[in-house]
Design goal:
The protein is an alpha+beta fold and 242 residues long. The chain is built from ten helices and four strands. The protein has two domains: 102 residues, Serine Threonine Protein Phosphatase 5, Tetratricopeptide repeat, CATH 1.25.40; 84 residues, no CATH class.
Length: 242
């Protein structure tokens, strides 16, 4: 068989067998990504940065003065003066305004402490300082109402012998019993000023035993000069309900 016949035969065989000529796949190189342009650097405002740091330092100093109870004194180095300096640089600074309000509330709290020990003039002076910072404060108004009510009360202070307390003497126990009976009769409230918590608890226990376990309404305050501060309201003095 010659070559021509053989080639024709093979062609016919492929045709009937379903042979196909393989397609040629051409692969193109990927397009390189475009280079990103870096953003322009944001210029730093050195003046604003220095101002922010200064305000932060001033607020920190003011908070330290507040924690140290330097509320309005000494002049120039008190919490109030430091907060005012912040407001000069940054009017409406929320932290400074809140700090001044906290000073007002601290004065009201100190006034209540003085009131509870019968120091009415001191309590009034503290409320006056609070009012200088915020005359519209509801907390100051409430404090004045408490002071007004307290001034109508009768306050008696019974000094206690420090040595007799230390020795738990019969004389001191007799005094405590007498005072306890008066407190029960007048339905008064009282404050125990004691040098230690243990001493204060002993005073209260002795007084309560003297009235047969009657629950006396009293608190204990730590102080260097032991005493009983007894408060009786007008209603109690007239025989009304407390």
């Amino acid at each position: 068989m010659n070559h021509a016949v053989l080639g024709a035969s093979l062609a016919l065989l492929c045709l009937f067998a379903g042979c196909s000529t393989p397609e040629r796949v051409v692969t193109y190189p990927a397009k390189p990504p475009a280079e990103e342009t870096p953003p322009e650097p944001v210029p730093v405002d050195e003046s604003a940065l220095r101002r922010a740091r200064l305000l932060a330092d001033m607020l920190y100093d003011a908070k330290n003065a507040f924690d140290d109870n330097r509320l309005m004194l000494p002049a120039g180095n008190s919490a109030y003066d430091l907060y005012q300096q912040v407001l000069v640089l940054d009017p409406g600074n929320a932290v400074a305004l809140q700090g001044i309000e906290e000073i007002v509330l601290r004065y009201v709290s100190l006034s209540d402490d003085a009131l509870n020990t019968g120091k009415y003039d001191e309590a009034e002076g503290l409320l006056d300082r609070a009012a200088r910072l915020n005359r519209e404060s509801a907390a100051v108004a409430a404090g004045r109402n408490r002071l007004l009510q307290a001034r109508q009360n009768r306050v008696d202070v019974v000094e206690l012998d420090p040595q007799g307390l230390r020795e738990r003497s019969l004389e001191v126990m007799s005094t405590l019993a007498e005072v306890a009976q008066r407190i029960q009769s007048d339905q008064s409230t009282f404050l125990i000023r004691a040098r230690t918590d243990e001493e204060g608890r002993w005073i209260y226990k002795t007084m309560r035993e003297a009235v047969g376990g009657y629950r006396l309404r009293g608190n204990i305050d730590i102080a260097s000069d032991p005493a009983l501060v007894i408060t009786t309201t007008p209603a109690m003095l007239s025989g009304g309900s407390p």
